[in-house]
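Same chain as my last thread, 161 residues:
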Amino acid sequence: MTRTEPRPDTDDKLASRDRRWLAVALEEARKAGADVPVGAVVVRDQEIVGRGHNQREATGDPTAHAEIVALRQAAKKTGNWRLSGTTLYTTLEPCPMCAEAIIQSRVSRLVFGAYDPASGAAGSAFNLFIAGRIFPIPEVLGGIREADCQRLLTDFFRQKR
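reply #2:
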């Protein structure tokens, strides 16, 4: 497994900003109800242009992952499916479906919290974010607020048992 590690905090302002936006994604994850608590926000110029949480149970839509919901909202709000110049913050390493949607939508940065060894597509189980693809690959940064994100998931599954 190739893990994308947080870079040294040489840019404290950026690291602080990433932690702050991941906190907003965590708030979004807590809205998931009966769904696995994953939250995502899409940010451009320090403004949220899209937000989402898992809604598969609520909607009966297998594609209603937090990242997809947030990307759809961002595209609608900006009036463009190309989301260049945005950062997508998500509490869990994206699955292959979400990873490809992030790439296809031209998101510039991906920042995530918890790693997903079962189906994470940013290096844990798969890696779709590899050089040489025909689409621009976003900068990927994992493990931001990892313990907080992991705890939310662990608590959810503990209660399900």
